[in-house]
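Field notebook, page 260. I keep forgetting to write these up properly, so this time I am using the form the group agreed on. The chain and the ligand, calcium ion, are recorded exactly as supplied. Prediction of the bound pose follows.
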Amino acid sequence: MEVEPNNTFDQTEPITMESWWCGTFLGDGALGDPEFLNFTTAESGWLSVAVEASARGSEADAQFIFYTDQDSILVYDSVASTDPQIVIPTDTIGTFNVAVAETGYLTGDAYTWALMASLVKPPVTWTFDETDGADGTLDNDDYTRANEFPLGGTVFGKIQKTADKDWFHVSVPDGMQAVDFTVEAFGSGSPADIQLKIYDAASHTLKKSCYHGTVDYDLDPDCELKVSAAIDYDIQVSDEFDVGSTFSWYTLAIVGVPAD
Ligand SMILES: [Ca+2]
Ligand SMILES: [Ca+2]
Ligand SMILES: [Ca+2]
Ligand SMILES: [Ca+2]
């Protein structure tokens, strides 16, 4: 249960992982009632931070900023819900901060929230990692430096900076009738809203843009290109709104469909 005042960074309230921490947006001013919380992990791995409000019958439309010394991201919803959640990989143990607020700064007894931070199993699997070095030599920000993508593989990457572009090059051999491109990100708790742009590598013309799945609220691209002969593609992965953070991960699978 929260203990007020937790309204500024200096008043940050430490919470316990692996259990629901409950509070109420109770305030007396125009700025609502911010809740500054933090928690400390004992091991690295995949981390879930979930806030439940509407799911528990609360009138609050909760959002939170998740941040560390290095980076931050605003999270305001999750798949088909206004309750925010992220699931992200962490490679360090340490203290993570969450600042929770009501989206419209609404306060009162009806505006309750519950938050749980927990370690979870990885929600995805992959076969290789993107190469996107910060030194400017190993980055994949341009198609001339595309990462080679083995057909049938799955890459794990991040939109780790503002307006990051990740380029991949795939060779499709003869004997295929289609190629499937499948992203997993937002649907598994990433804050990223991924889009794909698929180019013919020889002519560098755009063959297809892919913004979401088969239903609009599924933000993760899922599309197919028909093929009739061997062809090479260059694929650009980016965030639809060019938001980037070290928390903004995705996987992309590229699979060939053999001809009958
Ligand atoms: Ca409160
Ligand atoms: Ca507060
Ligand atoms: Ca990247
Ligand atoms: Ca990149």
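OBSERVATIONS:
- Residues 154 and 188 are 15 Å apart (CA to CA).
- The domain at 128-258 is CATH 2.60.120.380 (Jelly Rolls).
FOLLOW-UP: compare against the apo run.
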